[in-house]
Amino acid sequence: MRYKCFAVTIENQIAHVELNRPEKRNSMIAEFWEELPKIIRQIDTNSTARVIVLSSTGPHFSSGIDISMFGSRVENSDDAAAQEKSNRQRGAKFYDTVKYMQQAFTCLEECRIPVLAAIQGGAIGGGVDLISACDMRYMSADGFFTIYEINIGMTADVGTFPRITKLLPEGIVKELAYTGRRMSADEAKSLGFVNGVFPDQKTLLAEVMKIAEQIASKAPLAIYGSKCIINYSRDHSTADSLDYIGIWNASMLQTAEINEAISAAAEKREADFADLPVKRLHMGIGLTD
Q1: Which one is catalytic: 157, 175, 186, 260?
Q2: Pick the catalytic residue: 122, 125, 126, 127?
Q3: Catalytic pick from 18, 135, 149, 257?
Q4: pLDDT by residue (tens digit) across 228-240?
Q5: pLDDT tens, 126-140?
Q6: What is the pLDDT averaged over residues 60-72?
Q7: Cα separation of 111 and 105, whole Å?
Q8: Catalytic site includes residue 44
Q9: Mean pLDDT, the chain, whole residue set
Q10: Catalytic annotation on 149?
Q11: Can you give the residue ranges of every domain in the chain?
């Protein structure tokens, strides 16, 4: 399938999802918000890959949200009564738009498959929301990110703060949010926000693909469990998380997968693991959407 904002390839159990509007600095236009969750859910629902690598093209990863996403929703009417009622709806309409956009990034957390972000140049504004929702982040040496919204009189609202405050110290987040300054790749790595920094974009993508290959070689059911438990533990108490993982393994632990992993290692061969099952259709999401 062809997309306006992305190119998608799947090879060797790795789905490469690439932002491909470099001439527009990969700004997030209306089609972006429809296409990203559709792509992620298709891969996850159909279990067509074991890892997703999210990368970009051109000098910058993403320049963030195209502000026409908001301005285009203001409606005017010659009917004064109708216009007055429309004015009352603006807050609710804006809220609905934001929730719609938030879900496009939440799908990265909700999918069963790890998502690795390879970031070159700038991740600006909404680009920070996007990479914060990924499982791991890697940058080129020229990479940077900025919570840019404060520079245009906005508060970031599509997912940056709920996620990045769990990835960076609170004082650092507040400094970034209040000043809009750039954080370099090296600084981001020193603070643990970025897993690795590579000299250029070509090396960045090659090295991230190597990491994706390592993940793809592991048991998908165990990777799924690990992602689920790590995300759950982030948002719950230690006691609740210990109970949850006990229940998870009581129902999901597969001794056959453990035996296969041990046998494959001893025999120095590639393990023959079960893939994730195809998901049931729900919430109107179909296999061919």
Answers
A1: 157
A2: 126
A3: 149
A4: 999 999 999 999 9
A5: 999 999 999 999 999
A6: 81
A7: 11
A8: no
A9: 93
A10: yes
A11: 6-216, 220-267
Residue 263 C-alpha from the chain's centroid: 34
Topology of domain 220-267, CATH:
Lyase 2-enoyl-coa Hydratase; Chain  A, domain 2 (1.10.12)
Residue 53, burial from CB neighbour count under 10 angstroms (0-12, 13-18, 19+): buried
What does the chain come to in residues? 289
> Tokens 């004064």, residue?
80
The dihedral built from the CA positions of residue 83, 99, 149 and 62, taken in this order, carries a sign that is negative
Q: What percent of the chain has pLDDT over 90?
A: 83
Instruction: Give domain 6-216's CATH architecture.
Output: Alpha-Beta Complex (3.90)
Is residue 220 within 8 A of residue 111, CB to CB? The reply is no
186 is catalytic: no
pTM exceeding 0.70: yes
For this structure, is 126 an active site residue? yes
- Of these residues, 35, 129, 135, 257, which one is catalytic? 129
Q: Which of 65, 147, 164, 211 is catalytic?
A: 65
Whether the predicted pLDDT of 217 surpasses 90: yes
Nearest to 100 by CA among 158, 49, 14: 158
